[in-house]
Amino acid sequence: MSGEILLLAALGALGWYWYAGLQVREQAVAVGRRACRDAGVQFLDDSVALGRIRLARNGDGQLQFRRDYRFEFSDTGDNRRPGVVRMLGDHAEWVSLDRDWQPGALAGVTRLRD
User: Sorted alphabetically, which InterPro entries does this protein's record hold (predicted)?
Assistant: First the structure.
């Protein structure tokens, strides 16, 4: 009986992690799209891909998942350049557009305000 409860709790935790991850991914897509719009480039494929996940502490000292999502953008319409959105929990920490590409004040890493 206790094994079944433990299995049910584990499945519930896995379901919560999956659902929370989907919400964070949607937020990362919105952040990437906004960063590309602000930089005057095209956000490609309207998607992001999870590149890395680890635990980190937020400003209040609480442990949260830190996820790096990769995406691609184009500045000319016929090329692909890499970008990264780093999320801590459900908040964006920063967005990185291809470091070789320097569009004026927006170069390398763009800090986002909450």
Answer: DUF3301 (IPR021732)
- Model confidence, pTM: 0.79
Domain spans in the chain, listed from the N-terminal domain onward: 2-111
Buried/exposed 75-84: b ≥16 CB within 10 Å, e otherwise: beeeeebebb
Q: Encoding tokens for residue 80?
A: 């692909």
Q: How many CA atoms within 13 Å lie on the side-chain side of 70?
A: 9
* CA angle 97–91–114, rounded 5-degree value: 90
pLDDT per residue, tens digit, the chain (114 aa), is 688 999 999 999 999 888 988 999 999 999 999 999 988 899 999 999 999 999 999 989 999 999 999 999 998 888 899 999 999 998 999 898 876 454 444 444 444 544
Up-side HSE of residue 51: CA atoms within 13 Å toward CB?
14
